[in-house]
């Protein structure tokens, strides 16, 4: 096969490949939310968490039930935390990005974020999610080489989020999207628009920071103080609502024991052979969720870095995973990537757990994927 054709095939495999290092288990027994949590922690990893729409499809497909079932989200009643709607985009507070006095007209304070785009104040403002506004969608598929789309139809924040997720990927999330160069190209007139910013006090049972929410707004009321545990409504497209935690329902657990850290220092090639002979292979990190699992696993390493299944292929001039997928998601350290025929990638054991390229003959611990 010609290299150019092979390259096109590889590129076609890029961003739609997802590696999920956990499985869902539907438990038909009726238990309260806290009983279900205890059961899942004893038998599996924890009550189910959901990272994105792909997970929602997997969750629904794992059940033969059309009723209600607990998931691992509950309202702690603590301070509301700002989050970006797009999974994997971390919210980092920056006072200079906000104008808390920037509401206009009848706007009231609230739990959703909008921006006003004009030649003046372009900062974020918190307003009620019930207002209807234009909104900005993000599309990771890059249709027509575009990532951002201004939708000139007025919707409330939840409706805008649903629209973006059904037609594109999600509401624009992260300052690099809402303030980036492509966004500036959309500004041909003054307008106020929703972006993918919201805040809530809901937390996942396992402590993860997944910002994904899938509320059925016809049934869910965030102010119902006695309904603090989340359930998925399998007869309503799997959307979520909440109920009193002592109610008894079936539930979903997840099992995340899919990675193993090998505390032996080996060259990259020997690590690769070890994982292929004993497990599925060196781990491939194809999305932020897998990166999170690798980070937790790497913390226990005996070496400063741990090998992962990423190497530079000279014949193609590309970094490729051992699965032959090109790199779509990455977490390279600044100046951490050096291309060369004898280079592979390792994850920093500490700090931000960023990726660094190392020579293949260096020896480190490594992480294998079990399946």
Automatic annotation (TrEMBL):
Keywords attached to this entry: Signal
Coiled-coil regions listed: none
Domain called C-type lectin: residue spans: 24-138, 143-254, 253-369
Matching PANTHER family: C-TYPE LECTIN DOMAIN FAMILY 20 MEMBER A-RELATED (PTHR45784), C-TYPE LECTIN DOMAIN FAMILY 4 MEMBER K-LIKE-RELATED (PTHR45784:SF3)
Chain ranges passing through the membrane: none
PROSITE patterns: C_TYPE_LECTIN_2
N-terminal signal peptide: 1-16
Alphabetical list of InterPro entries matching this protein: C-type_lectin-like, C-type_lectin-like/link_sf, CTDL_fold
Identification of the protein by name: C-type lectin domain-containing protein
Pfam families on file: Lectin_C
């Amino acid at each position: 096969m010609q290299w150019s054709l092979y390259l096109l095939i590889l590129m076609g495999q890029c961003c739609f490949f997802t590696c999920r290092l956990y499985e869902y288990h539907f438990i038909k027994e009726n238990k309260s939310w806290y009983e279900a949590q205890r059961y899942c922690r004893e038998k599996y990893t924890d009550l189910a968490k959901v990272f994105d729409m792909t997970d929602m499809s997997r969750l629904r497909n794992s059940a033969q039930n059309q009723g209600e079932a607990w998931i691992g989200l509950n309202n702690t009643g603590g301070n509301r935390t700002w989050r970006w709607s797009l999974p994997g985009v971390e919210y980092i507070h920056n006072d200079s990005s906000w104008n808390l006095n920037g509401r206009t007209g009848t706007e009231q304070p609230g739990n959703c974020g909008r921006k006003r785009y004009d030649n003046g104040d372009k900062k974020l403002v918190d307003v009620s999610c019930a207002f209807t506004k234009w909104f900005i969608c993000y599309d990771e598929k890059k249709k027509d080489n575009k990532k951002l789309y201004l939708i000139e139809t007025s919707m409330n924040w939840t409706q805008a989020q649903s629209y973006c997720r059904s037609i594109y990927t999600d509401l624009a999330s992260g300052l690099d999207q809402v303030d980036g160069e492509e966004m500036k190209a959309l500004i041909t007139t003054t307008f106020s628009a929703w972006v993918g910013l919201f805040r809530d006090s809901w937390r996942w049972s396992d402590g993860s920071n997944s910002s994904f929410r899938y509320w059925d707004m016809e049934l869910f009321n965030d102010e119902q103080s006695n309904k603090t545990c989340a359930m998925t409504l399998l007869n309503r497209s799997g959307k979520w609502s909440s109920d009193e935690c002592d109610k008894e329902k079936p539930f979903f657990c997840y099992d995340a024991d899919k990675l193993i850290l090998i505390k032996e220092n080996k060259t990259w090639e020997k690590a690769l052979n070890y994982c292929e002979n004993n497990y599925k292979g060196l781990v491939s990190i194809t999305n932020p969720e897998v990166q999170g699992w690798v980070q937790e696993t790497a913390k226990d390493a005996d070496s400063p870095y741990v090998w992962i299944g990423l190497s530079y292929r000279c014949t193609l001039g590309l970094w490729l995973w051992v699965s032959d997928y090109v790199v779509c998601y990455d977490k390279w350290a600044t100046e951490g990537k050096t291309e060369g025929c004898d280079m592979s990638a390792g994850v920093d054991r500490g700090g931000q757990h960023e990726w660094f390229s190392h020579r293949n003959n260096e020896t480190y611990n490594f992480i294998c994927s079990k399946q």
